[in-house]
Amino acid sequence: MAESMDPAEVEFLAEEETVTIIPNFSLDKVYLIGGDLGPFDPGLPVRVPLWLAINLKQRQKCRIQAPEWMSVDRLEQLREEERAAQTFTPMPSPHYMELSKLLLNVAADDVPRADEIRALLRDLWDTRTAKLRLSADGFVSQQASHAQVGLPRQQACLLSMQSAVLSSCSFSLLLNRLIEQPVYRLHARSV
């Protein structure tokens, strides 16, 4: 069985996703092991890993452009799709929650309608958490051999993050029971 990842590890992986920044400085191309970055010219958009965008923003060296999916219209659409589906729907990014949390914490002034986006992301999170809770409850009450949540493979880390949220509703007890009795297993369907 694969080890689960804690939220800090998932956040670390999310920081490798690229975002667009608008630098306010000049710098030739930078050659790194993970790939070349730049050149950086004031006012010209450039794609960089999130970790660099955050660092530059904290030093007031750039503005960060929110990803296309991080708009009120797109998030409202995603929320409605999630509410209408019985299983999880694909998200725009495997690390959409970590990426949005980091961007809204560091660069909320660069994100139009940041407060509305926070609320929509919370609604989306709550909807997905409720689906996970219902699946786990059905699993326990039916003594089924698996629970189906339609979890996309790249979002498997959602289970480790949401298990902390759901511990108050005995989700951790369910996981402990599953570990003790290998006959039962959670099944995450690939989407």
Automatic annotation (TrEMBL):
Localization per Swiss-Prot or TrEMBL: Nucleus
DNA replication complex GINS protein PSF2 N-terminal domain mapped to chain residues: 6-65
InterPro entries in alphabetical order: GINS_A, GINS_bundle-like_dom_sf, GINS_Psf2, PSF2_N
Coiled coil: none
Stored Pfam families: PSF2_N (PF25005), Sld5 (PF05916)
Keywords assigned by UniProt, alphabetized: DNA replication, Nucleus
Keyword set includes Nucleus: yes
GINS subunit domain mapped to chain residues: 69-146
GO BP of this protein: DNA replication; double-strand break repair via break-induced replication
A GO cellular component entry from the record: CMG complex
SUPFAM superfamilies the record matches: GINS helical bundle-like, PriA/YqbF domain
PANTHER family: DNA REPLICATION COMPLEX GINS PROTEIN PSF2 (PTHR12772:SF0)
Job description of the protein: Required for correct functioning of the GINS complex, a complex that plays an essential role in the initiation of DNA replication, and progression of DNA replication forks. GINS complex is a core component of CDC45-MCM-GINS (CMG) helicase, the molecular machine that unwinds template DNA during replication, and around which the replisome is built.
Similarity comment text for this entry: Belongs to the GINS2/PSF2 family.
Designated name of the protein: GINS complex subunit 2
